Each structure stands twice: as C-alpha cells, then as structure tokens.
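Chapter summary example.
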Amino acid sequence: MKISVTGTACQGKSTYVSDFLKNWDMYKTPEKSYRDIIKEKNLTINEDGNEESQKIILDVLVDQAISFTKDDDVIFDRCVLDNLAYTVWLNLNGKVSDAFVEKTRTITHETLRMYDIILFFPITKHSPVNLVEDGLRSVNEQYREEVDSIFKIFQQSYLDGDGKVFPKNDCPAFIEIFGTPEQRIKLTELYINKNGKPYGDEDSLMSDIYMPPEKEIIVP
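The structure predicted for these 220 residues follows.
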C-alpha cells in the first residue's frame, strides 16, 4: 500500500512519518527525497519558487510514486499534491503562469491514482504552525497559512467529488490527521490495522464494539 503525508510546512509530517514507521515496521520510506534534490540543485523554493524549480520537484515526486507498486508498503513524506498547492500559491502571486498550473494539475490528477491513502495535516487550533527554520522551510507564518488554505480547497474538491484535483476513478482516500504526535498515531489506527492494511467491511473497527444480533450473549 502506498501512503503519503501532505500539508503545509512545519505541521510535524516528518516526525509523523518516523512515528508511523515505528508502529508499522513493515513499511519503508524512500531513502532519497525531494529535499535532497533541492540541496543538490540549489533550487529556489517557497515564496521565491519558479516554474523550473517546481517542475524539477514535481518530476521527483512523480518518479517516487512510479518507482513503487501498490504491493509495496511505503509511506512518502509529501507527494504531487504538495507540489500543486505550492504552484497554485506561486500563480496567485504572479510568479508562475496559468498554463504551468494547468499542466501541473493534469499531471497531479493522474499521478494521484498511484496512491492508496493521502494523510492531510491541516492547521487547526490543536495543530498550529510550528515554525522551524532549517533552510528549506519558510518562516513566514502567513505564507504557510495561505498554502494551508489551498490544501483545504483541495480537500473540499475531494469531498465534492468534482474531479478537478482528485480523479473520480481510482481515487486515493484523503484522511485528515491532527492532534499531538500520540493522538495522530491513535487516529491513524482507526484507518490502518496492525498489519498495515486499511480496514475493510469484514474487519472494521466497528466489529470490535458491535456484536451482530445472532452472536449476542443473552444474560438472564
């Protein structure tokens, strides 16, 4: 199964991936990430990003998605949806063209079919922005909140099923994750079983708290 975490910067996604791997040790994560490419190529990113840098990062994220099959158990720190969100922000601020956004959207739309679950880390009162300056993430809180708003527009598109961002067929589940690191893992356990697989109708968590009538024990 292929899982990705997504959301604006400094929401604890990398920490979550580390915690996830401790709880579901059958999973792996790519040894090399888009961050390595940013450093290697000295790309201009965040508020100063451009079409060239966004295209390079998008290519890396697409290649990652392609390099694993759905038979692999892998979790990604970010995916193509992140690239689209930051590209939309750059477009809204006059830094990339409409045509570039549309091309990115089309690639994102098709690549999303390759994931099984996308875990979204929104800014909430329980999960505020945690500013960390590391040379890769912007320290501009307004910028992060604006990107978060774009993600939430994507989330609404998913809920509406309009097919603008997410494909209507072969669409990954889009699940909101929030809270403390411990709460985030507990929340994930509602969707992924101890074997690292999503709960199906036959093994739903509801079976643990609801006993069908024919199996009820009658107490005199």
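To summarize the output: The mean pLDDT is 87.
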